[in-house]
Amino acid sequence: MTKQQLAPGLAVAPQIQPADVAQLAREGFRTIICNRPDGEAGDQPVFAQIAQAAREHGIEAHYLPAESGKVSDEQGIAFGQLLASVPKPVLAYCRTGMRSTTMWALSQSASQPLPQLLAAAAAAGYDLKGVVRRIANHGRTPVEVAEAEHAVVIIGGGAAGIATAASLLARAPDLDVAIIDPADVHYYQPGWTLVGAGVFDAASTARTMASTIPRGVHWIKAAVAAFEPERNAVILDGCRVVRYQHLVVCPGLKLNWAGVDGLADTLGRNGVTSNYLYHLAPYTWQQIQLLRGGRALFTQPPMPIKCAGAPQKAMYLAADYWRREGRLNNIDINFCSAGAALFGVADYVPALMEYVQQYDIHLRLGETLTAVDGPAKRATFTRVRADGSKEVITREFDMLHAVPPQIAPDFVRVSPLADAAGWVEVDPGTLRHKRYPNVYGLGDAANTTNAKTAAAARKQAPVVAHNLLNAMGKENGVAQYDGYGSCPLTVERGKIVLAEFTYGGKVAPSFPRWLIDGTRPSRLAWLLKERIMPPLYWKGMLKGREWLATPELTDR
């Protein structure tokens, strides 16, 4: 945990972890203020976890969230009022500390000279020039004055963003490319299922962002606040502006923990866990090992979600462990899914159903998790009856693996780039935006109907790279994405049902059936998942090596 003194009695910091609170207590901090909304990133603990740790150490905790780059004057006033009323010293935090610093500066603008505020922020490592411009323009963002301009700007340094940058440079090594992402760490998220089963160590799925960004790419370490596609501009946290000739939007999606009442308050406690968070995947494995009897609930929200098979992957691996330990007969396993089918592609369902029967799993299809009472260990579900009425069902649990509903990031949902559901609106084949021809979208934030997986991004990145360069006159032909997605369903330790399919649920195997029959559990597929895919990800996909991912071209 790094923190900087901003003013007497106030320090600011990037995202803190629950484990950091004990150190803050030892250092004498009496109040924590969170300025970051829940669900911005997969490695982010929810505020309720920070608040619980604070209570345990006698520290006040307050929640005053602001969307990145959209700190309002009203929030600045609220921050100042809160700061004046709480015990000192105070630690305020957000993703990077920028929102906290901005709120503080706005709260003090009437009582301190502007140079003094800027100097204090600069000494703490925060540049407030963007806030100065905003105030001078009476709240209007001055897009005419850009901080930087690049030929290609990529929003997001996840799998899709890094792979696209690498594919672009593999085709045009001298291309001016910038990636905008505020994160310090890049995660191999497909590995979190195996972390939750004790197969991988969590640290093996993480590398520094700096080490994954291709050489020659400019890294703008900031969060995006808004898009101005009519002016070819991106507005950053602090109201800074970056202009582009071509834009690629792939920031991932948002885990909407607030979409399930009470869930955020109990994550990481009371047997409630989720492999969708980096720091909770090890807790999943801990809970699996500790459970010797009782009821285990595994939930899946309505689509779309990231890796639609992940909720049941966690369940199968847990059941396999309990079977190996001789505990399975003592554990009542329930799979409570909002979907109407076990899996969206029917060809893979028979093999999965065999494991459902082997593990004696109770399928609760059509049920959506709506509330969790952690201390009482009760989960509430809603099911829609045939006549359209709703039925509320409450189940007790000893362990709950919960998957939250998922939505596009806030700055995407409210932007001109979004469709009616909030996702980036692109042509499903070319991945070019339907209304802004110099904008492309891919990965989890795009409104394509493919499975939202890293395997999909691996196929999409070369398509975007080729088509963008075609638009610049550097490539011939138009590349087409066929909707390919892959979901390695870990049905037991050592075996996988390798689901591969394109748009419309058409089965699309990468290997001959005699080698890997994706509709049946396979040991070779497990070897692929455990041993081959991680290095292929780090050393292939993120380096612009398009093995089994060369796009098909058409003349149109």
From TrEMBL:
Superkingdom assignment: Bacteria
GO biological processes: sulfide oxidation, using sulfide:quinone oxidoreductase
Pfam families found in the cross-reference section: BLH_phosphatase, Pyr_redox_2
Cofactor: FAD
Chain ranges of the Rhodanese domain: 88-144
UniProt entry keywords in alphabetical sequence: FAD, Flavoprotein, Oxidoreductase, Quinone, Transit peptide
InterPro entries: BLH_phosphatase-like, FAD/NAD-bd_sf, FAD/NAD-binding_dom, Prot-tyrosine_phosphatase-like, Rhodanese-like_dom, Sulphide_quinone_reductase
GO terms of molecular function: FAD binding; hydrolase activity; quinone binding; sulfide:quinone oxidoreductase activity
PANTHER family: SULFIDE:QUINONE OXIDOREDUCTASE (PTHR10632), SULFIDE:QUINONE OXIDOREDUCTASE, MITOCHONDRIAL (PTHR10632:SF2)
Protein name (record): TIGR01244 family phosphatase
Protein's organism: Rugamonas brunnea
Taxonomic lineage: Bacteria, Pseudomonadati, Pseudomonadota, Betaproteobacteria, Burkholderiales
